[in-house]
Amino acid sequence: MLAKRCTFHNSASLEWIYICYFKKMELKRGFLRMSWDSYLDNLIAQTKDASGTAHADKACIIGVDGGAKWTSDGHANAFKAWQKNNQLEYQPPIKKAVQQMITSLDEKNRHHLRVLTNTAYFVGKEELAFRKFGSLCDLQEKNGVKMESMYRNEKMCSQFIASIAGVEKEKTKREVRETRFLSLLSDSSTDAGIIEQEAVFVRYVDKQGRPWTKFLDIIPLESATADGVCNTITTSLEKIDIDEEMLKKLVGCNFDGASVIMGKKSGIAVQIQEKVPQPVVILHRVAHNLELAVLNAVKTIPYLENFHKTIRQVFKLNCYSPKKRREVDAVSEILDENPAHFSIAHLEQVSSGKGEDGAKAKGILKQITTGKFARFLYFMLDVTAVLKELSESFQRAGLFITDVAKKLDTAIANLELLKNDKPPTELSKFQTKFKSSYDEEKKILLNGKNNSQEVSLKDNSKVQISLDTSECAKIAGCFKSKDFSPFMTSGIFAEGTKYQFLRVEDEKLVLGKKKEQGAISLQCSKTAVVIGHCPEGGQQGNLNKGVAVIAEYLESLGM
């Protein structure tokens, strides 16, 4: 037997190992191909201890008999034991090279997939079409990002996004299982395909005490009934393993105020409460509640609907017609003015023509060239500014329920301040400008840059406001003549009655009979005046039924 003796020294003992010295060694189960030098180097390298001293704990004898290569079971077992004891796994050079190549390819593929995944996430986050995925990949490659040509199509984009969604959903499942409390948020809307969809969210607190709101699902409604909506919500919850046991963590729900949701007998809120042993706080979404409150308030102001209709007509007339928009832009460019300042001038031009547009423009002009419309426009600027701030604060993600009442009280206080013009309101600024820019004789209001635009106003003093009996009595006391009380006559100064508004003269309001009834005039204080209508034979107690004020206090009108 041909063998070579190798000696390994350590501080504990002296070991002898005999290893065959030949180019090829064969075990029972396969070939072990290794040169002596490489095997010896590998053995020494793999058996060094922490101090750098090479040693061996097991002996391995492999021999030959009569020139035929053989390996005894004992020797093979000894070799395997030595490998296991030293945690070695011998790899032939070819296999090692292949594995290194695979590792290199895996790293390259991981980089490629990482770029594609980030790109697909961007497409989903920004709500872009999936067909944009390939173009975005091309752009990144042009900017120097190394990318492969595989998987750069919209089908793969949808798969990437689905995978991301799956990972996020699993993360939400894990966090919901670990949380102690959770709340449910749901709302329905109609998509572009005219299909009613229910969007479901879950809100919970993590281990660090931070609140999170996570999207669960958006699913078509089975029906718009309470049972249909409730089944849809239950299906969404089951997708993240929220069963009846998990529902015991539910402490609150947030919905809109529809009767199908908030119904006290069979609404969704009632059905959810029946599934949960503890009381659940059901809240009407505050932002939606504010919207309903404003809509209810609007119903108390009849003129507001007409005002809103006129604003929409102006918008539609110009917005959906490129030709009209070019005309407005051309006029404003010539006169160096903001296009909005020339809406009336443009409408006058359009109204002079024939056809449907001309008729529409005439109708719009009739509405917007009244003093009432102009004042109401500035009044809405003041009111909507307060409501806008309140609505946006209700829609912030970090809103606490304790902040709702405080923000609502602040908004009401700001609305109350508008009555006293503190701070100066847009309406008061307009009144000041109106007073200096309005020509009483010609009924012309100058506006625009350097007052270069003239607008003819009609019925400047008419403003519809209801007054109660005590306010009417206060106004009646302002009249100089005690012999003539407007509240004790069958007709009060309004269109269709005996008396009418004539003019302001020497700080006095001059009222008089109409021409066909003679030239009788009456003066009153400039401080306040009412021109309205009282039913025939009406008395002061009936004023709430019949009085329609068509002139505010002269001071507030800026006259």
From TrEMBL:
Keywords: Actin-binding. InterPro entries: PFN (IPR048278), PFN_euk (IPR005455), PFN_sf (IPR036140). Pfam families: Profilin. One of its GO terms (molecular function) is actin binding. SMART domains: PROF. Belongs to the profilin family. This is Profilin.
